[in-house]
Structure to design on (331 residues):
C-alpha cells in the first residue's frame, strides 16, 4: 500500500510517499481503509523530532482517521466490513496509553490497523472529512472546557489561537455550553472567521496586549476560564486576564513549554491551573462530538483538503500558520 512515511526527523522534506507492507491484523483488531485523515500540530512536532512523545523510525503519522472497516479479526463479532468509522487513537491498557500515529503506525496510509474497540461507527450524514476532524481537536475542546474546566452557561471564556484546529473547535463547544467567548488570533482575517463561528469578542494578539483588552471587555473583572494552546509566551498575560477563582486550561505549547512561575496572582486570586490531555478523555466525549457534529450543532471547520501525495504542502500550511481550522489529507 502507499503511505507517507519518514525515516529521519526534520522538515517537510523528510515525508516520503512510498510503498509499505499492508498491516496484518490480530484476532481482536480491525483493518480500516482510510478515507480521510486530518492534520494536527502534533504531526509537525513528531516529524521534526521535537515532541516529548517517543516515536520509532521509520514512522507513519496520522492520529485523526476516518474510513471504512475493511477486514475484522477472528474475535471481532460486532463490526462488519463496510462499516463507516472514526478511530479513537488512544489505545488504553493497564500499562498506559499507546496512540495511533504516535507510538504506532497511523493513518497517513491506505490502511491502518487498530483494536476493534477503538473504532466508533459514524452516521451516514457525517462525511469522512468532517469525522476525521473530531477525535483530537473537538474532543480536546469538549474534554477541556466541559470536563476539566467545568464551563458553565453565562461564564466568560478566553480562547486563544482561534484559527487553530483546537481553537476553532473550542469556540463552537464553548458557545454550545452557553458561554460568552473572547477569541484571540494573529490576523484580522482569522478574527472575522472566529466571529462567524460564534465568538462574541475578538482580539488580535499581534496588534494589542490581550490582557489589557480582556480587562476592557470584562470591565476589569477578567475571564472565568482560559483555553490555552500557546503556553509560555502567553503565560504572564493569561494570569493577568483571569478573574478571581478563574481557571486556566493548559492545552498546548506552540509558544514554548517553560515559564517562570509567579505564585502571587495564583494565590491571591484563587486561580486553578489545569492540565488537559485528549488521550485521557473518556470515549463518551468522542461519541458526544460525533452526535453533535452529525446533527449539525457543531460544524467541523475545514480549511483545505490535499491528496496524500501533497502531504508536505499540507504540513507547510500549518507550519506557516496560514490555516483556519483543520487541514485534511485524502488518499
Ligand atoms: N493537550 C492536548 O490534548 C492537545 C490536543 C490537541 C492539541 N494540543 C496542542 O495544542 C496546540 C495547538 O494544536 P493545533 O493542532 O490546534 O494547532 P494548529 O491548528 O497547528 O494551530 C496552531 C496556531 O497557533 C497559533 N500560534 C500562536 N503562537 C504560535 C507560535 N509561537 N508558533 C506557532 N503557532 C502559534 C497560530 O495561529 P496565529 O498565527 O493566529 O497566532 C497557529 O496557527 C499544539 O501545541 C498541540 O500540540 C494539545
Amino acid at each position: 500500500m502507499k503511505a507517507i512515511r519518514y525515516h529521519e526527523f526534520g522538515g517537510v522534506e523528510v515525508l516520503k510517499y512510498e510503498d509499505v507492507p499492508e498491516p496484518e491484523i490480530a484476532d481482536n483488531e480491525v483493518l480500516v481503509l482510510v478515507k480521510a485523515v486530518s492534520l494536527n500540530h502534533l504531526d509537525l512536532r513528531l516529524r521534526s523530532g521535537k515532541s516529548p512523545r517517543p516515536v520509532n523510525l521509520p514512522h507513519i503519522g496520522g492520529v485523526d482517521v476516518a474510513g471504512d472497516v475493511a477486514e475484522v479479526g477472528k474475535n471481532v463479532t460486532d463490526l462488519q466490513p463496510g462499516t463507516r468509522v472514526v478511530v479513537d487513537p488512544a489505545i488504553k491498557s493497564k500499562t498506559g496509553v499507546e496512540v495511533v500515529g504516535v507510538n504506532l503506525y497511523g493513518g497517513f496510509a491506505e490502511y491502518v490497523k487498530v483494536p476493534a474497540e477503538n473504532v466508533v461507527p459514524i452516521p451516514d450524514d457525517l462525511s469522512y472529512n468532517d469525522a476525521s476532524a473530531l477525535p483530537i481537536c473537538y474532543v480536546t475542546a469538549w474534554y477541556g472546557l466541559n470536563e476539566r474546566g467545568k464551563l458553565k452557561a453565562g461564564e466568560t471564556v478566553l480562547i486563544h489561537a482561534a484559527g487553530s484546529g483546537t481553537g476553532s473547535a473550542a469556540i463552537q463547544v464553548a458557545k454550545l455550553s452557553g458561554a460568552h467567548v473572547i477569541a484571540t488570533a494573529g490576523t484580522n482575517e482569522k478574527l472575522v472567521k472566529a466571529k462567524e463561528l460564534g465568538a462574541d469578542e475578538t482580539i488580535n494578539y499581534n496588534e494589542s496586549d490581550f490582557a489589557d483588552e480582556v480587562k476592557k471587555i470584562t470591565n476589569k473583572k477578567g475571564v472565568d476560564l482560559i483555553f490555552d494552546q500557546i503556553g509560555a509566551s502567553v503565560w504572564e498575560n493569561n494570569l493577568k486576564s483571569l478573574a478571581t477563582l478563574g481557571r486556566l486550561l493548559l492545552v498546548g505549547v506552540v509558544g514554548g513549554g517553560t515559564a517562570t512561575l509567579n505564585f502571587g496572582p495564583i494565590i491571591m486570586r484563587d486561580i486553578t491551573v489545569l492540565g488537559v490531555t485528549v488521550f485521557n478523555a473518556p470515549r463518551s466525549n468522542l461519541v458526544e462530538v460525533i452526535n453533535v457534529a452529525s446533527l449539525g450543532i457543531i460544524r467541523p471547520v475545514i480549511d483545505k483538503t490535499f491528496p496524500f501525495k501533497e502531504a508536505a504542502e499540507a504540513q507547510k500550511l500549518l507550519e506557516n500558520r496560514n490555516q483556519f481550522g483543520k487541514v485534511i489529507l485524502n488518499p
